[in-house]
């Protein structure tokens, strides 16, 4: 990855003020709810009480953006959010996604025909106990270029917005070609692709989002935890920078992501209230030029 130094066009000093998520103002660090379910995003959590507590602490410390999906569980993440936070405080932006569903053994099924997307939106509204959602991502499950199905999927999302079921449309797991195609049809609130220090394949998508002022919300910003795990003998760039700046590896990964662009938001997933607090505190970390150069070697 050393040859691919990301363009740092945004927050050279990390920020604590709000960022844009489509029409909404949110804090740069949100919460990914996928880790609140059982293992593999299937079934109930080991400690339901702790999951509920975490969601309430999140809102108490200023988290105003929670990423979820009806198919996390299924219904588990949404039900926990509902039990913990409904009626939702003003300004809390719940973002969900459609395009997949779970079978009874936890397998992930593609569920992306237009009628299935509409059903997916309805399932999210039901399980979250709302009549509309701020943002829903169209999560692509197939690796096909923009095609007739993609047009039909976009049309279904636009129709849902026209009906008032969703306020903003996002895309997830897309290429720059999908993004450029979609913006000819509709405004987008966000793009949610995999992207972190060890996987920058979505750089063209991030660049396009930055150019267009669309929020880029990388999923798995901690590489599903591997960037965050602390180890005393860690001589990786993330470990070295974390030690020098006196913070954790997770905080470095989050601060780096936020420094990429003024349009980047993060939604680290956690089942730990201590980790949640740590992740939110990453907004106070400023990465200097030496740190950014070292992290480029990741
Ligand atoms: N659009 C999509 O297709 C898609 C796909 C995947 C995920 N997502 C969304 O993106 C969110 C984030 O992705 P993710 O949860 O898969 O991966 P992630 O945020 O990269 O990593 C989550 C892992 O990191 C650990 N972790 C979190 N904070 C930590 C800290 N401060 N110190 C040490 N470990 C820490 C968590 O363990 P602990 O529980 O122990 O903290 C968990 O194992 C998800 O929750 C979900 O909402 C979307």
Structure explained in plain terms:
The chain contains ten helices and eleven strands. The chain has 298 residues and is an alpha/beta fold. The strands form three sheets. A seven-stranded parallel beta sheet has the order 3-4-5-8-9-10-11, covered by helices on one side. The protein has a two-stranded antiparallel sheet with strand order 1-2. The chain has a two-stranded antiparallel sheet with strand order 6-7. Residues 1-7 and 12-16 have low confidence and may be disordered. NADP nicotinamide-adenine-dinucleotide phosphate binds at residues 32-35, 67, 97, 139, 172-173, 192, 219-225, 228, 248, 250, 267-272, 275, 278-279.
Care to give the gist of this entry?
The protein has ten helices and eleven strands.
What is this structure's SSE topology?
Layout: E1 19-21, E2 24-26, E3 31-32, H1 48-60, E4 65-67, H2 76-85, E5 93-98, E6 100-102, E7 108-110, H3 114-128, E8 133-139, H4 148-162, E9 166-172, H5 176-182, E10 190-192, H6 203-212, E11 215-216, H7 237-245, H8 249-259, H9 273-281, H10 289-295
Parallel strand pairs: 3-4, 4-5, 5-8, 8-9, 9-10, 10-11
Antiparallel strand pairs: 1-2, 6-7
Helix pairs in contact: 1-2, 3-4, 7-8
The site of NADP nicotinamide-adenine-dinucleotide phosphate has 29 residues, from helix 9.
């Amino acid at each position: 990855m050393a040859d691919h130094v990301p363009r740092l066009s945004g927050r050279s000093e990390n920020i604590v003020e709000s960022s844009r998520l489509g029409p909404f103002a949110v804090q740069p660090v949100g919460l990914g709810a996928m880790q609140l379910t059982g293992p593999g995003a299937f079934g109930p959590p080991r400690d339901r009480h702790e999951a509920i507590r975490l969601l309430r602490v999140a809102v108490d410390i200023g988290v105003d953006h929670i990423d979820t999906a009806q198919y996390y569980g299924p219904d588990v993440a949404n039900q926990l959010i509902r039990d913990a936070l409904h009626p939702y405080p003003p300004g809390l932006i719940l973002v969900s996604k459609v395009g997949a569903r779970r079978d009874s053994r936890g397998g992930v099924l593609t569920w992306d025909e237009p009628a299935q997307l509409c059903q997916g939106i309805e399932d999210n509204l039901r399980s979250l106990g709302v009549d509309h959602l701020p943002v829903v991502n169209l999560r692509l499950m197939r690796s096909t270029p923009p095609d007739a199905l993609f047009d039909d999927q976009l049309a279904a999302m636009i129709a849902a917005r026209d009906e008032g079921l969703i306020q903003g449309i996002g895309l997830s797991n897309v290429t720059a070609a999908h993004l450029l195609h979609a913006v000819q049809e509709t405004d987008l609130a966000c793009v949610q692709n995999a992207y972190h220090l060890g996987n920058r394949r979505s750089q063209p998508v991030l660049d396009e989002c930055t150019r267009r002022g669309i929020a880029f919300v990388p999923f798995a910003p901690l590489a599903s935890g591997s960037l965050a795990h602390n180890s005393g003998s860690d001589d990786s760039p993330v470990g070295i920078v974390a030690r020098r700046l006196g913070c954790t590896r997770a905080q470095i990964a989050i601060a780096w992501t936020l420094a990429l662009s003024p349009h980047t938001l993060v939604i680290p997933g956690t089942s730990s209230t201590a980790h949640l607090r740590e992740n939110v505190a990453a907004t106070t970390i400023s990465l200097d030029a030496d740190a950014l150069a070292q992290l480029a070697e990741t």
